[in-house]
Design brief:
CATH class of the largest domain: Alpha Beta
CATH architecture of the largest domain: Alpha-Beta Complex
Bound molecules: zinc ion
Distance between the termini: 13 Å
CATH topology of the largest domain: Quinone Oxidoreductase, Chain A, domain 1
Helix content: 10-25%
């Protein structure tokens, strides 16, 4: 039995190939992948052959955001049935190392993260019609849509960012950068009790996704400013910085209140920051990296209809057009989250 896979051989060279389906171990399930979300890392791998110091050094099946339907069970699988809709958790921590022992599984020293080129050999990803995974990586979606289910991973990232922010009940929140993760931070912050969530971006398309996810106001920074929020040393309790743009971080530091918390979600290389503002306002600038337990939480919130992530999806392409899908996903004027559909056999 073979499966079609979406494999990046090197920068700019994507192939749809036929691979053998991996035989399930006794605790594994085989999933027919339904939807796969294209993430910034996939886009950078395709266009640039990596991100910063992470380089694609061997062919890699892309993708770490996916949903699907269970089609076969290993001999000892009790928790799933054929036909179950599931969200696929790309994060496999070892459970044994020092970081895992401390409960910091997102920092696992032996992390296998599907579709990531960080380690050698690369962890192969989820963009294939059939994938074999441990049952524990397949989280039930109940009656939720498979499109929503493929948003579980970025929603988990947003929920982890909320956890890093601390108590959000009654808080005034700014989200800078309203791409998929920014827009899902809006939804997660609203769900966590934030009363006001202002979202910024340079384009209207992501801002409309942020509004659909519950933002109370959107600000297009190409022709508006946040100046009105600068008074009294700044009005926002919490900022989710999802752009990693120096200008966005600078404006965020001006409008965050003294002792506010700035959660850094977006990633870039080195940039200069307003060190005197960071110190003078005693800003708590915290990083937020991936997720752990939040994946199951995200799946539960989607399953129960508490957070609907689908407003971020701007297009769905068939597998045959994976390359066009990745190129489209990089166009922030037109797209927020682009999905690939693996359904067509
Ligand atoms: Zn992602
Ligand atoms: Zn570990």
């Amino acid at each position: 039995m073979k499966t079609r896979v979406c494999r990046l051989k090197e920068a700019g060279n994507l192939e749809i190939a036929l691979d053998p389906i991996q035989q399930p171990d006794k605790g594994d399930v085989i999933v027919a992948v339904a939807n796969g979300g294209i993430c910034g890392s996939d886009i950078h791998y395709y266009h640039d052959g990596g991100i910063g110091s992470i380089r694609v050094r061997e062919p890699i099946i892309l993708g770490h955001e996916a949903s699907g339907v269970v089609v076969a069970l290993g001999s000892e699988v009790k928790s799933h049935e054929v036909g179950d809709k599931v969200a696929l958790n790309p994060s496999q921590a070892c459970g044994q190392c020092g970081q895992c022992q401390k409960g910091l599984q997102q920092h696992c020293l032996n992390m296998q993260f599907s579709g990531s080129a960080i380690r050698m050999p690369h962890a192969q990803g989820l963009f294939r019609q059939r994938v074999t995974l441990p049952q524990s990586q397949c989280i039930p979606l109940g009656d939720a849509s498979l499109a929503a289910g493929a948003c579980t991973e970025p929603l988990a990232v947003a929920l982890h960012a909320c956890r890093r922010a601390g108590d959000l009940v009654g808080r005034r929140v700014l989200v800078t950068g309203s791409g998929p993760v920014g827009s899902l931070c809006v939804g997660a912050a609203r769900y966590s009790g934030a009363v006001e969530v202002v979202a910024t971006d340079l384009h209207d398309k992501p801002l409309s996704a942020a509004m659909a996810m519950g933002a109370t106001r959107s600000v297009n920074m190409s022709d508006q400013t946040l100046e009105e929020y600068e008074r009294d040393k700044g009005l926002f309790d919490v900022v989710f910085e999802c752009s990693a743009a120096a200008s966005a971080i600078e404006s965020a530091m001006k409008v965050i209140r003294p002792s506010g918390t700035l959660v850094q979600v977006g990633v870039s290389g080195n940039l200069s920051i307003l060190m005197n503002t960071l110190v003078g306002k005693e800003i708590n600038w915290v990083g937020s990296h991936r997720f752990h337990g939040e994946f199951e939480l995200a799946a539960a919130l989607i399953r129960e209809g508490r957070i609907d992530p689908t407003p971020i999806i701007s297009a769905t392409y068939p597998l045959d057009q994976a390359e066009q899908a990745i190129v489209a996903a990089g166009d922030r004027r037109q797209h927020v989250k682009v999905h690939i559909s693996f359904n067509g056999e």
